[in-house]
Each structure stands twice: as C-alpha cells, then as structure tokens.
Amino acid sequence: MTERTGYQDIAGRLAREIAVLEPGSKISSEHELMERFGVGRASARAAVQELERRGMVRRIRGSGTFVNRRIDYLISKDLRPSWQRTVRAVGATSRSTVLLSEVRPAPEHSARYLGVGPETPVHHMRRLRYVDDRVAALADEWVTCDVVTELGAALRIEESLDELLRQLGRVDSVRSWCRAGMELPDDDVCRALDMTTVAPVWVIESINRDADTGTAVTYSKAWMRADVIRVVMEIGDHIPCRTEEGKS
C-alpha cells in the first residue's frame, strides 16, 4: 500500500464513521490514528488534512479535531443583505464582534464603489463573525456618513447593520452588486479567522443601495472560512419549474 493510497483509505473509512456522528464530536488524535491503522505520523496527518479539505472536520489549536458542520450562505437579490438573517435562516446561531469602528476618509476603492468623492468621510468597521460560536468570517464594511451619523455605539446594541440602517437611516437596503471568489488569505486574515493551515477562503464583495433612491449606502468585503460556510448564489428572476415533459 503506497503512502498516498494509505492516507486516502484511512480518510475514506473515517469519513464513513464521521457521517453518523453529531457536529462537534471529537475524533481520534493523530497518535491514536497511527496506532489504530499501523501507519506513520505522515499518513495519519495527511488523512486528517484530507478530511479537513473536504470540510468534514475542523481543528482547534490545543483542543483537537472535531466533526464539522458547514452551512449554506445564500446570496440572492430577493433576500435582505443581512449576515444575521441569512445565518439564522438555516437554523444556525450568529453573533459578531466589533474589532474596529471609526470615521475615516474613504479609501479609493471604497469611494469608487460608494459613488462618493475621494477622501469623503465614511464609517469603517471591521468585524469578526461567528456561526454556532465558531469563527466564520472577517468583514470590512464602509457606510456613507450621510445615511447615519452615529454607528459605532449603535452596533453594540444591534449587531445587524441592515437593521440599524432601517431603524436609524430609514434605508431599505438591497443588494445591487456582488462578486464572489476564492483565494488564499494573507497572514493577517489567517490569524483573524483562527486558521491552523492556509487554505482557500471565500471572498465576497457587495454593494448595497437604498431601494427608494438607488443611492449606494454600504460596501463590504468579507473573507469566509470554506470549512464553515458554503456560499450559494441564486441569480435570475424566478425559480425554474419543470414542464409536463419533465424538462426545465
């Protein structure tokens, strides 16, 4: 049995066992896998890394490896652009931690996306987002100051930016543009997301506008852990239906 076949065989057997376990269940350590399957540390580690690549397990520094639960994060023009509402819609819990909140001149890219002049003062926030108490995403958000004047203090009371804009700015925020892709994060993002290994993450950029005026009110860029979130995008005017012949 080659080293490659060995770790893939171990990963396959563990995957079948994990499929019937509850999310959060702890799985065997690398040392225990070495003893159970009679392999070296390299094969045991590669098997766990393969399960992590599949999104089936997650590793927590100093605690071990656990059965993972990955949720679908749906992006659609028909849904309110709210992290909290989207996460809760799939039965998961959501919370956010504010890492930074300040009013500052808009960076060039943010000013362009928001349709304001360079150096125009905007609210800038950086927040760490959690799903079921797991670090899931890091987000930078820029909000035009003419929509709402005080934002930092309000975020300590209401976590949903979408809800705050509705309450304080009387803004009916809708998603008008979105770009999604995957990339390898830099060291700062890896540390913020508590990633034990460098792996591709979802990168989501969005512009939200006021439905009534068409004015851009927020621009955001988020890095989402792919082992916690599966990004799903729905594009189109309606859900396709099947005809009598069984064709869509």
From TrEMBL:
Coiled-coil ranges (or none): none
PROSITE patterns: HTH_GNTR
Keyword Transcription: yes
Record-linked Pfam families: GntR, UTRA
InterPro entries in alphabetical order: Bact_HTH_transcr_reg (IPR050679), Chorismate_lyase_/UTRA_dom_sf (IPR028978), Tscrpt_reg_HTH_GntR (IPR000524), UTRA (IPR011663), WH-like_DNA-bd_sf (IPR036388), WH_DNA-bd_sf (IPR036390)
Residue span, HTH gntR-type domain: 4-70
Designated name of the protein: GntR family transcriptional regulator
Species of origin: Rhodococcus zopfii
